[in-house]
Amino acid sequence: MTALDSKIPPGPMPEKWQNWLDAHSLVGPRNRAGKNVIVIGTGLAGSSCAASLGAQGFKVKSFCFQDSPRRAHSIAAQGGINAAKDYANEGDSIRRLFADTMKGGDFRSREANVWRLAQLSQNIIDQAVAQGVPFNREYSGALATRSFGGVLVQRTFYTRGQTGQQLLLGAYSALEHQVAAGNVEVFNRHEMQDVVIVDGEARGVIVRNLVTGELERHAADAVVLASGGYTNVYYLSTNAMGSNVTATWRAHKRGAYFANPCYTQIHPTCIPQSGEYQSKLTLMSESLRNDGRIWVPRKAGDDRPPAEIPEAERYYYLEERYPAFGNLAPRDIASRAAKVVCDEGLGVGGTGRGVFLDFRDAIQDQGKDAIERKYGNLFEMYHRITGDDPYETPMMIYPAPHYAMGGLWVDYELQTTIPGLFAIGEANFSDHGANRLGASALMQCLADGYFVAPHTVTNHLAKKHDEVAVTDSAFDQVEGDVREHIQKLIDVGGSTSAQAFHREMGHVMLDKCGMSRTAEGLDEALTEVRRIKADFYSDLRVDPGDEEFNQSLEYANRVSDFFELGELMIHDARRREESCGGHFREEHQTDDGEALRDDDHYAKVTAWEYEGDNPVPHDEDLNFEEVKLATRSYK
Amino acid sequence: MLEYWRSTVGKKQFVAVTGAILVGYLILHMLGNLNSAFGPGADEARVDWYAHWLRTFGEPLLPRETILWVVRVVLLGALIVHITGIAQLVKRNREARPANFPAKRIGRSVESMAMLGTGILLLAFIIFHILQFTTLSIHVTPVEEGAVYANLYWVFQKWYFLAIYLAALVLVGMHLRHGIWSLFQTLGLDNPSRNQKLRHGATALVVILVIGFGSVPVLFFTDVLDPPREVALATILSGVFT
Amino acid sequence: MNFTLEIWRQFDGSDEEDKGRFETFKVTDIDPDASILEMLDQLNERLSREKKRNIAFDSDCREGICGTCALVIDGTPHGPQQVTSCQTYMRDFIDGQTITIEPFRASTFPVVRDLAVDRGALDRVIQAGGYISTTTGPQPDPNAMPVAPEVQEKAMDAAICIGCGACVAACPNGAAMLFTGAKVTHLNVLPQGQPERESRVVGMVEQMDAEGFGGCTNYGECSRVCPQEISIDVIGMLNREYRKAKTKRKPKTEKAMSTQ
């Protein structure tokens, strides 16, 4: 097996991307219409990439499983998007955004990628504004910014509490513009089933038309996966019901390495679970931590109404433990701290798994109007879901699986280990290391989609490619495999829905491969996941009929991949004998319970090669030139 | 222009503009009617003089009844556009909903739902009204060319004509209460800060129109207004029995 | 809580044979804090155990922002609370009551199966002008084009549309005026949207007609079911923009160009 080549361009860090751009191969305008690109997914990364490639003149086919490209789950991002613009005159810079992101990721990301991300962050805001994204403005008419978890500057741009929605609608409108221009064709209610490889390069996909059930073949000169993250492996997460790992997982099974699958982010500010029936968890924007104070009663079992608990008996645990950052400590730290206090029995709410997020002081200081202006819609949403009014009583929050830092391994060009197969946005592993900072996901998705992939894909398209017809035997073979798998699911003929198995597995994953992990627990988890998987293949029930609209089949098909991914996550978490970011191994912690990294052995990316039950790890060493490895301290 | 008319939004704007023309005419018509309230007068009823003036306005520069006919043509044109537009829109709108699944009523006003019904009844009424007072073709009561006051007087001695006209006014009121506000919205002349005022304004105008129009028949019926002068009994009888 | 459900079942909208019908289900022991979609999940799990066909319905984010879920509940799109279907909780209903669940009804939204419909017509309306024709590349500094907060607020009040189509389903005329008006308002009040102001509104209105949406008769039902509470002022704005675009005199140069 060849060593992993990250293809980092030469030159000083600030010049690497420009050096790469200056040297990459181009396709002349006349030849672009003859080059075909497939983009899977229409979230921020997928829409922006398809629209940008379409605008250059390439022929793009864009696929989404939703009924419209506008529904991709990027739409649910609330808080904001980071950019090193320094409009607030705080001395912010590309280097600072870079350094914050590196530190936030617990020094487990690739420097060159992160630097490029910080550089491109500036262009994203300009691009979005030009599309008509209505960012919040100051009285002067200038763009407004606010601060977000894990940083000391105000570099987050926002559109009320619906930043993801507005940015996605901006990218979606650019996509529809290109559809109208005839450069992009959108296939909604189409789900990718597999990637087709011809002569070692990705040359097409098999997709399932979810309305007719038909398997379709599409050939192309390059395939871009922008299919999002995999935290639905935990069943209950902040992801959408349909969010799944199928596209990236099937690509992994065809030879693309999967990097750092154990890095998952558990978001600290979600509405606690209230019942077994629950199908998803709802995130409350992290921006609430700007003004809300997080606390639990000092005394276990204190069931007085929160307003009656005096100041001295309130444990503002983040403020006490992390005085510099306080309630704005990074996500992994805030989440684990909540878990720790709840494990100590201080948790609140019906299940004892909740902490207060209190706006009493903010309302006193700034007035109810000011708070309403900033968070009105979030408060309303909370009120709607829980029936409690946050203006009157503190919110209750608890961490929930939210984001996957891991994903397909990609080089600097965002190309996977399969030539011609690219992965962008949350689907790749590249920029966030072991933990993602707030408001950085939108930034990375759009940087990849608007400004990186269109060039790196072009670079690939510039190579000469022989025509591949969908009648090629490679398509026959892959379609056959897909058909066989679908038939297998239908043929089980049991009596339990896929959702029930999913819930059972999710529980194991969250418990043993979630916010904190132990070698013993991971070993148990592996056994349990395998058992549930075996049950799945012996008692699954899906509605009959593969050639029709069949949602139970769609669901089972996705869950079948989550089982396999779950196993790989466990392998990865087991192998990484350190704690970093979202990966916390109880064996590796400081005396006061903070994560303990092992830079000597694990300052590297683990990229897994698919080998059935015995995946093969490959390491990419991480080199640090611009940041100094340090214990991540937010105290 | 044809393209404008073809689009749903455009067609509705034609309906709105023609509706506005008809409303404008109604206001003038009401003011004209109020001339009747001056009674039979010493030698000529004021309303008769007004009717005569309408016919001779512009003479000798213009031939007799020119203005009257211009107004009539404009009104007829507006009415045709108004009705054609609505007919076509109604067809479109019905096709846009699947058959057998009417939308549940979620707070829409009675007036807005009844627009088509009130519109059709009003069309019938207008035809009746023209036959009665313009072409003088309904001879239940005595009618005579030029004797507007007398014609009105005798018609509104009958309770059933009074009832028909008052009922028509209710229809007018309903149609316009939604229609007037609606035309501002349809033409995009409203804006959020004015919307409430427009709704109140529409209601106020409707009230004025209904009172203005309704007062004349009521005043005749209740004999507050004197009978026309120099009315020979014979004329009455011949009017009734021929 | 226990409920009797009258649920619309239809195999396939394109199949003339199956015109659809209601099927009755009894559900028991439903948590009041479950959403109506979670109740359907539970019902589907039971149907799986009974080896019966699951009820097809669309949903995705389940937090009220993606616009996928689309149920008509007791005759009202998204149900009694003016929120999305996924945020309609069983505590909003009376224990023991009968709840009727149907798909969004409009000729422009053909039924895919049971409660799932095809809302592609809305995407095509956007394709006809619901964007600013900029492409990826260097853009001017955003602060070089200041936008007053009131203008931004007005744009945002319209831009928050989630494209669920409840307005169409609620409209007795099956009109998409609220949806289209929201996009026209969002883009036409912003300085970036000015160059294409007229072509945008004309294109989108023409596409609405081509799709077969009905016209507006100012009932206001659309706004009353809109989970984002978008005001019918956006329809006034659309009407105004359309009228201005259609009645504006073309400058001579433009006329000359269009006749060439």
According to DSSP, the number of beta strands of chain A is 20
Given the C-alpha coordinates, what overall shape of chain C results?
Answer: elongated
Structure summary, number of beta strands of chain C: 7
- Domains of chain A (count): 3
Which stretches of chain C are poorly predicted, pLDDT < 50 over at least 5 residues? Answer: none
Instruction: Specify the helix fraction band of chain A.
Output: 25-40%
CATH fold-level name of the largest domain in chain A: FAD/NAD(P)-binding domain
The largest interface is: A-C, 78 and 75 residues
State the name of the first-level CATH class of the largest domain in chain C. Answer: Mainly Alpha
Q: Please give the alpha-carbon distance between the first and last residues of chain A.
A: 44 Å
The name of the CATH superfamily of the largest domain in chain C reads Alpha-helical ferredoxin
Major sheet characteristics of chain C: 5 strands, mixed
Q: What is the radius of gyration of chain A? A: 24 Å
Chart the SSEs and their pairings:
The complex is a heterotrimer of chains A (635), B (242) and C (260).
Chain A (H helix, E strand, L loop, with lengths): L15 H8 L5 H4 L3 E5 L3 H13 L2 E5 L17 E2 L11 H11 L6 H20 L14 E2 L9 E2 L5 H18 L3 E4 L2 E9 L2 E9 L5 E5 L2 E4 L20 H8 L4 E2 L4 E7 L22 E5 L16 E2 L1 H5 L9 H13 L11 E4 L1 H7 L1 H19 L8 E10 L2 E2 L12 E3 L17 H21 L11 H20 L5 H15 L6 H21 L11 H25 L23 H4 L1 E6 L6 E6 L14
Parallel strand pairs in A: 1-2, 1-10, 2-6, 10-18
Antiparallel strand pairs in A: 3-5, 4-5, 7-8, 8-9, 11-17, 11-19, 12-16, 13-14, 13-15, 15-16, 19-20
Helix pairs in contact in A: 3-6, 3-12, 4-5, 5-12, 10-11, 14-15, 14-16, 15-16
Chain B lengths: L1 H5 L1 H26 L12 H11 L9 H31 L13 H4 L1 H19 L14 H8 L3 H29 L7 H27 L11 H9 L1
Helix pairs in contact in B: 2-4, 2-8, 2-9, 6-8, 8-9
Chain C lengths: L2 E7 L11 E7 L8 H14 L21 E3 L2 E2 L20 E6 L7 E3 L2 E2 L2 H8 L21 H11 L6 H5 L6 H13 L7 H15 L9 H5 L7 H15 L4 H8 L1
Parallel strand pairs in C: 1-5
Antiparallel strand pairs in C: 1-2, 3-4, 3-5, 6-7
Helix pairs in contact in C: 2-6, 3-5, 5-6, 5-8, 6-8
What do these coordinates show?
In chain A, 37% of the residues lie in helices and 15% in strands. With 635 residues, chain A is an alpha+beta fold. Chain A folds into 3 domains: 27-264 and 403-461, FAD/NAD(P)-binding domain (3-Layer(bba) Sandwich); 267-401, Succinate dehydrogenase/fumarate reductase flavoprotein, catalytic domain (Flavocytochrome C3, Chain A, domain 1, Alpha-Beta Complex), CATH 3.90.700; 478-621, Up-down Bundle (Methane Monooxygenase Hydroxylase, Chain G, domain 1). In chain A, strands 6-2-1-10-18 form a 5-stranded parallel β-sheet. Chain A has a 5-stranded antiparallel β-sheet with strand order 12-16-15-13-14. Chain B is mostly helical. Chain B has a single domain, classed as Fumarate reductase/succinate dehydrogenase, transmembrane subunit (3 helical TM bundles of succinate and fumarate reductases), CATH 1.20.1300. Chain B contains 10 helices and no strands. Chain B has helices at residues 2-6, 8-33, 46-56, 66-96, 110-113, 115-133, 148-155, 159-187, 195-221, 233-241. The longest helix of chain B is centred in the middle third of the chain and has 31 residues, at 66-96. Chain B starts with a helix and ends with a helix. With 260 residues, chain C is an alpha+beta fold. Chain C folds into 2 domains: 3-116, Ubiquitin-like (UB roll) (Roll), CATH 3.10.20.30; 119-252, Alpha-helical ferredoxin (Fumarate Reductase Iron-sulfur Protein, Chain B, domain 2), CATH 1.10.1060.10. In chain C, 36% of the residues lie in helices and 12% in strands. Chain C contains 9 helices and 7 strands; from the N terminus they run ββαβββββαααααααα. Chain C has helices at residues 36-49, 120-127, 149-159, 166-170, 177-189, 197-211, 221-225, 233-247, 252-259, and strands at residues 3-9, 21-27, 71-73, 76-77, 98-103, 111-113, 116-117. Chain C has a 5-stranded mixed β-sheet. In chain C, strand 3 and strand 4 (76-77) form a beta hairpin. In chain C, helix 5 (177-189) runs antiparallel to helix 6 (197-211) and helix 6 (197-211) crosses helix 8 (233-247). The radius of gyration of chain C is 21 Å and the shape is elongated. The mean pLDDT of chain C is 93.
